[in-house]
From TrEMBL, chain A:
Domain ABC transmembrane type-2 stretches: 157-386
A GO molecular function held by the record: ABC-type transporter activity
Main location: membrane
Localization terms from the record: Cell membrane
Alphabetical keyword list: Cell membrane, Membrane, Transmembrane, Transmembrane helix, Transport
Protein name, UniProt field: ABC transporter permease
Keyword Lipid metabolism: no
From TrEMBL, chain B:
Organism this protein belongs to: Bradyrhizobium archetypum
Function of the protein: Involved in beta-(1-->2)glucan export. Transmembrane domains (TMD) form a pore in the inner membrane and the ATP-binding domain (NBD) is responsible for energy generation.
Domain ABC transporter: 13-240
Pfam families per the UniProt record, alphabetical: ABC_tran
Protein name per Swiss-Prot or TrEMBL: ABC transporter ATP-binding protein
Matching InterPro entries: AAA+_ATPase, ABC_transporter-like_ATP-bd, ABC_transporter-like_CS, P-loop_NTPase
GO molecular function, one term: ATP hydrolysis activity
Keyword list, A-Z: ATP-binding, Nucleotide-binding
Amino acid sequence: MSATDTVHAAGEAREPSFGFWRRSYAMLVKEFIQLRRDRVSFAMIVMIPVMQLLLFGYAINTTPRHLPTAVLIQEDSDLARSVLKALENTSYFRFTREVHSVAEFDDLLQSGKVLFGVEIPRGFERAVRRGDRPALLVAADATDPVAAGSALGALGMVMQTALAHDLHIGDPPAMPFEIRAHARYNPAAESRLNIVPGLVGTILTMTMLIFTALSVTREVERGTMENLLSMPIKPVEVMFGKIIPYVIVGFIQASLIVSIGVLLFGVPILGSVLLLAALTTLFITTNLSIGYTFSTLVQNQLQAMQMSMMFFLPSILLSGFMFPFAGMPVWAQYLGEGLPLTHYIRIVRAIMLKGAEPSNLQYDTIALFVLMLVAMTIAVTRFRRTLD
Amino acid sequence: MNAAPASTPDIAINVEGLSKSFGGREVVHDLSMQVKRGSIYGFLGPNGSGKTTTIRMLCGLLTPDAGEGTCLGYDIRRDADKIKRQVGYMTQRFSLYQDLSVRENLEFVARLYGLRDARGAAREMIQRIGLNGREEQLAGELSGGWKQRLALGACTLPNPRLLLLDEPTAGVDPKARRDFWNEIHALAAEGLTVLVSTHYMDEAERCHEIAYIAYGHLLAHGTVDEVIAKSALSTWTVSGDDLNGLAAELAGKPGIDMVAPFGTSLHVSGRDKSALEATIAPYRDKSGWRWEASEPSLEDVFIDLMNRSKDNFQ
């Protein structure tokens, strides 16, 4: 008590009034000045919300329509054409491919090029006219229950009304044929079967980007870049040296997520584990390259983080992870094709849930490769070898 | 690979007309210099005079806007990669990895330069710079003097032929500075060329040759004696009472270019010897002061150069 008294007595610098607010104000002014100096961050403060809102507001559609559908027509009849037209009129289906065999059909579904397959069997029209109630086969890729669900649900109702106008077989009390819908890959429509493989990709995107997005800016901010640049090391060597350790880290992370998915959530791995491991490694490397590219483009760690966020959000929302890819407008789909997660989600779902073969995954594998090479090329050319 | 190109056997650095601007401000202007092999070349000048920029241009970290030249016989524009192999650059700010240990930092450098036995080379260097016992300490935890030794160790590790040291002894205690300079002289004796920038006059006097640069212009160069002689500065040392009063009185009078207190004495200097003597004549007879004609110190010369260059460039 006495000690504090003497301190007060001796202290010439009197505590100014509103000391708390003055000091907070001083700090606040300083922060604003620093924020204003960092032009890029300042721009991103406006850009991130506006861009993302516009982007996702227009792109996201939870009741997707015009889903890519393959048709296998075994007979060319008026009724078959009417049925197909009625299907398209439901606005859920868009016929993108015509196939000639069941094998082709399976292949398209497995590689994710179409979400539905419609098969009109031989002798369909005749069977209808005889009142045999033949089966119209609609196979759906139900890995994503949201994408398949609404289309399948609406199928019976909408078809009936559409056909009543179109067919000249009276006003039947019931459908003249049976629609046999077959939800493949995830017949029970369990969303976790779809979500868990998607999460593998999403989690990896987030962690991998951050690992490398900070790597070059950190060297610059800590002053070690000057020393590094004065030594005989080439940009490619810096890049590989910075990426490779995290490929291993990412691989361990991926194994962990997949193991938990299998053991805890009961997600199967129908395809080859080796193939999954190889393509996951490719995906990890692609993300690390992109993070590293960001690192060479920005000036400080804050910008690197913001840039990663700018990339991460669309990755979640436009890749088919949260919302059906096929339900997005075409421009958003093109955007989505530029994201590694889009391709990886197709790959991981196809291998784990559909038992896909390498031949089913060619396109997405090549896409990941191309994205990786583009990122690496930008990084190497953007890496400044001097302090100019 | 180690053989120097035949064209310049005795010259390590030979540059002509180097210029560099940042954002419209010319930091280095038309700078030419030659550094003999095996010599210690001191680079002096006030803060922001372009010393660091010049050093960075020499080792390929910055591209000159104009001018050309060679470093160890290699073109500074085209052969930056070759120069980097044979030049050790010690940055002004400690730029090794703070979160790596002494040993790990040295091994990193050794591996980067492709030394055959990186571990062995690092171990030897730890011995040489006297950091044994601290090899597992993180570089960030070392004191200033030790950091500077580690940095010197790191840039001499790949056996460079030229060392570029940017204010290596800033913030280091006198004992460590002396040890450091002994090491520099030992390295130069082994044939290494050293270009070192500094603010300390005693360090300048330890160099074989010096150059003085201010506002991007090279103002003087040569040996210490040559630079002093070329300055044509006459200096009188005054000791006695009320030197502050005298200093205030003399400043600005004709013939007096500089009045600077040195401890208990005052240096009064001017470039025009007779004008200086005419001005101080009345004061020399006054009691209480002792006047002595003396040689200008290097510091007098530099401060004079700095004052003059300020007039010219600002």
